[in-house]
Amino acid sequence: MIEIRNLTKTYDDAAVVNDVSLSLAESGITAIVGPNGAGKSTLLSMIARLIAPTSGQVLVDGLDVQQTQGAVLAKRLAILKQNNQVGMRLTVSELVAFGRFPHSGGRPTVEDERHIDEAISYLGLDDLRTRFLDELSGGQRQRAFVAMVLAQDTKYVLLDEPLNSLDMKHAAAMMKLLRRTADDLKKSITVVIHDINFASIYADQVVAMRDGRVVLQGESAELMQEAVLQDIYDTVVQVREVEGHRLGLHYL
Amino acid sequence: MTVGAKGNWDFVLPFRGGKLLGLLLVAYAVATATVLFQTITRNRILTPAVMGFDSLYVALQTALVFFLGTRDLANVDMRLRFVLETLLMVTMSMALFYWLFLSRQRSLHLVVLAGVVFGVFFRSLSHMMQRILDPNEFIALQDMLFASFNTVDQQLLAVSSAIVLVTAYASRRLLAKLDVLALGRDVAINLGIDYQRVVMLLFAMIAILVSVSTALVGPVTFFGLLVANLAYQAVGTDRHKYTLPAATLFAIVALVGGQTVLERVFGFDTALSIIIEFTGGIAFMLLLYRNLKR
Question: What is the CATH number of the domain that holds A213?
Fold first, then answer.
């Protein structure tokens, strides 16, 4: 379980994340939603020790992320940020192989090779294995990075807007894939997501943030209420039920 | 080493051997420092020299002569002085590195600009002190500073070799981590690298290597850039297992080959550093141009 206790991050007196306390489940998908600038990405980065909090602490299975050795955490928790650029010219399989670094220390074993192959075929990248990353489309590259994070084989996976730069087809496919991963491999996947409808359909648990604070934590049905959504996003969202899923219509 | 050797071998061997060892050390130091630096900054154009770190070394030396005077300095053992200077250099450049790269995320443009300004600042500072200096002391200082691949400082060879061996061992142990570092800070931390610690360690190694090469032959600005980029092009992969030795090899070929040509063909008429800086400068501009086009 990931426990977040009174987490705060301030930049020049402005609190981006303000006294957030949460716990993220052992398995299943948690979606973090909220308007731009609500502090979603900052929260995720602090959970994954990429940013040091101003105050508060994060415990991953009881380990304080600021105190624990990086190598220990890397076997339990993986994060993928948005806008990934690597400074090196790498093929898809080389990139995915880096996901095994916490386990192999740079010398891959047969076991590591197996994980790499599995992650690559799990994301349907078999045909692209030897292609260089800069020869791929945005969506393919995004999948290659997700494969790297899956190869890391951690219980907790944090994804910062994984649907960015994916079209309708690939966005839906990515969410289905995350759903399958969470169910098959019993992982705990936390995603920052902008499209509330994806959260409504695929997430087990929803965390809604606004102005650096958590305003709602619960099942997606609790989020998908017109009054609640209007309060969070400050705009009118009509909610309709389609084939048992509650969908928000914010285009009108 | 044996090309066109005439006369007493007892003189020729130590003389040329020393020179060769010096060139090898410089080649290794410059190539490694540049590749490490480019990995940390994830930039193919920055080198420790472009960022003005060898002018920091020159400024330190000038300041020493300025404040202590050559007489006091001459009384101190040269090797001890070198070690002390290196320590001073490591401390100062680590502070600078830390401020530039680690204290907060800064844009690359700002970092380069700051580096150029620092370079000019340290150079002007050295010049100013050199102007006020007593002429005799100035000549002694110039002797210490003048960049020349012919007069590799023989006394420092042993100390430098020891230092270089230690850093070589350290960098071997870091090889796998270097590849991960090249993926960027966030990915590196995600993969379990203790980013802050590893980067500071690498900065320390870079500072030491820059001190060694500057102490032996003086500042060389574009040489590292030249060999590092030649290596990236030649090996076709960015794995440090291959790029580090390749860069060192290119550096050795350039220095030792260039020195042989200089001695045998040009008959010492020109300076090796001029030839290397000339080609290096052209390579630097080509790189800038290619990046602009992208």
Answer: 3.40.50.300
Residue type, A24: L
Task: Give the closest of A72, A79, A101 to B180, CB-based.
Answer: A101
Looking at the complex, report in whole angstroms how far the Cα of residue B58 sits from the nearest Cα belonging to chain A: 32
CA distance B272 to B255: 8
Provide the domain limits for residue A63: 2-76+154-249
Q: How are strands ordered across the β-sheet holding A188-192?
A: A77-80, A156-160, A188-192, A28-33, A205-210, A213-218
**Whole-model pTM?**
0.84
Query: Quick check: A133 contacting B, CB < 8 Å?
Result: no
SS3 A64: strand
Q: Which residue from B minimizes the CA distance to A86?
A: B183
Q: In 3-state terms, chain A is what percent helix, strand and coil (to 5)?
A: 35, 30, 35
Phi/psi at A20 (nearest 5 deg)? -95, 130
| List of residues 6+ apart from A202 with CB closer than 8 A | A29, A31, A175, A176, A178, A179
Number of other CB atoms surrounding residue A42 within 10 Å: 21
Q: Is the minimum CB–CB distance between A72 and chain B shorter than 8 Å?
A: yes
**Rounded CA gap, B200 and B189, in Å?**
15
The span from the CA of A240 to the CA of B205, in Å, is 62
Looking at per-residue pLDDT, the higher value among A176 and B127 belongs to A176
> And the tokens for A21?
């306390």
Beta bridge partners, A9, equal A17
Largest CA distance in chain B: 62
Q: How far is C-alpha B163 from the chain's CA centre?
A: 14
- Measure CA of the first residue to CA of the last residue in chain B; give whole Å: 44
Looking at the structure, tell me whether residues A61 and A159 fall in a common domain.
Answer: yes
Domain count, chain A: 2
ipTM for this prediction: 0.88
Exposure string of A49-73, with b = 16+ CB inside 10 Å and e = fewer, is bbbebeebebbbeeeebeebebeeb
Residues A67 and A167 reside in one and the same domain: yes
Cβ contact (<8 Å) for B191 and A49? no
* Per-residue pLDDT tens digits for B225-237: 888 888 888 787 7
> Do A164 and A147 have their domain in common?
no
The tens digit of pLDDT for each residue in A71-126 reads: 899 999 999 988 777 767 889 999 999 999 999 887 888 999 999 999 999 888 99
Are A72 and A165 found together in one domain?
Answer: yes
* Residue A128 and residue A11 share a domain: no
Instruction: Identify all chain A residues contacting B177, using CB atoms and an 8 Å cutoff.
Output: 106
- The distance of A32 to chain B (nearest Cα, Å) reads 20
Are A190 and A157 in contact by the 8 Å Cβ rule? The answer is yes
Q: Which amino acid makes up residue A74?
A: A
Closest by CA to A160, choosing from A82, A241, A231, A52, is: A82
Domain boundary among A114, A129, A153: A153
User: Are residues A237 and A164 located together in one domain of the fold?
Assistant: yes
Q: Answer yes or no: do A90 and A121 share one domain.
A: yes
Domains of chain B in sequence order:
9-293 (1.10.3470.10)
